[in-house]
Design goal:
alpha+beta; Chalcone isomerase; 2 domains; 3 helices; disordered C terminus
């Protein structure tokens, strides 16, 4: 916190403990307010991040690794039920409410594994896909959102290439 540890402040004889105790909640609230609330983010004319709340707990569909990143695709229960019923298949379409999240990380070697293994390191981007034929009739019901992650500021923002994904 601002380069000064609470223990160091308490050791300082010029700072009364009462003043520290009274000021600490205000400092913590200020830090909490400064953190980005990702669930308030929205793609202009498109999806809101809040539409995908809980994506971290969805079921894995696929994972892959390129030369520079590891990717995971996860799906909500509606999409997973569609997969189990045989979709995608000739003549069948995914139902409204189907959602997918694609998570991309840089990777690093796992140094404690007894064999060679790469694991996710830093988040790079997130992409969301949702099927809702009423909200997105111009794209056969599909809407897309892509978010770039900035590790330096710990924030997400709509990806530069976002304009092609509007519903």
């Amino acid at each position: 916190m601002l380069g000064i540890s609470p223990a160091r402040i308490l050791k300082t004889k010029n700072v009364p403990v009462t003043a520290l105790v009274l000021a600490l909640p205000a400092l913590l609230v200020g830090i909490a307010i400064a953190a980005q609330d990702k669930y308030t983010l929205r793609i202009p004319d498109g999806l809101a991040f809040s539409d995908f709340q809980g994506y971290e707990n969805w079921q894995d569909v696929a994972v892959s690794q390129t030369k520079t990143e590891i990717k995971a695709i996860v799906a909500n229960p509606t999409m997973m039920d569609a997969f189990r019923s045989g979709l995608p298949a000739s003549g069948k379409v995914f139902p409204d409410g189907s959602k997918i999240a694609k998570i991309e990380w840089s990777f690093k070697s796992n140094t404690v594994s007894p064999y060679f293994l790469n694991v996710p390191d830093k988040l790079k981007s997130l992409a969301f896909i949702e099927k809702d034929t009423k909200r997105f009739p111009n794209t056969h019901g599909w809407a897309y959102a892509e978010w770039d992650y900035d590790a330096a500021t710990d924030t997400l923002k709509p990806a530069e290439r976002q304009s092609r994904y509007r519903g």
